Task: inverse folding
């Protein structure tokens, strides 16, 4: 999905002081939630123009196209906005099958156990040591 | 799921200036993403103690147990944290089948169409006018 026009709907970036909205990437086939990151207007437009999920890195303060290092880009299949227009849900095709820089399919690979600890239950697709050199 | 101890893992609330992390509610059976809201430490603990998703309302600046008005509480089935510990994914049983105050099953009921407009594609479960009086 690529959209090049300027007259598309967009989230309400004025809702937060920093001009960012939360963006969820969900596997378009399995429904698995892959990750949550941030978007400003520039990353929203870049996402629509390229068809690849592009976020705003709060730590690096730069645009960040997911997969620019690992090759594991997220191809946009559908985009939804929520009722308040301040959250984005992208249904994506995750190239390489792993969204997480830790090598897991999903960044949400740790489950809170009954004893209060975190247990890794997600599926590890790659060894991050061999991908990010 | 209810957890009463104090020694459970928690998100890193220091990651953002306002002490909030993003929290996603996902239907535990269908995988549908129902909503995104915010949590501070108090809402995280209340969620674990009660077994019902409890958020922090940024606009009202108060704890907010989802469903306290509508009765449509979200019973926690599983909780996941992401790799950076600054996002929460809750798999929930959505009582009443509708998470959105607009009456839709999911708050993400509007899809970005090819022409750039937003189209409501979600399933409307109730008429908000008859629920919130």
Result:
């Amino acid at each position: 999905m690529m959209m090049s026009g300027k007259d598309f709907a967009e989230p309400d970036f004025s809702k937060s002081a920093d001009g960012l909205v939360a963006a969820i990437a969900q596997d378009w086939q399995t429904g698995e939630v892959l990750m949550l990151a941030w978007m400003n207007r520039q990353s929203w437009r870049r996402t629509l123009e390229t068809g690849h999920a592009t976020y705003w890195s709060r730590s690096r303060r730069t645009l960040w196209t997911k997969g620019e290092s690992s090759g594991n880009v997220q191809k946009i299949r559908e985009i939804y906005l929520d009722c308040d227009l301040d959250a984005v849900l992208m249904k994506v095709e995750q190239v390489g099958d792993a969204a997480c820089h830790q090598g897991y399919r999903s960044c949400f690979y740790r489950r809170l156990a009954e004893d209060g600890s975190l247990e890794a239950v997600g599926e590890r697709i790659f060894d991050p040591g061999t991908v990010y050199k």
User: Anything to note?
Assistant: The mean pLDDT of chain B is 92.
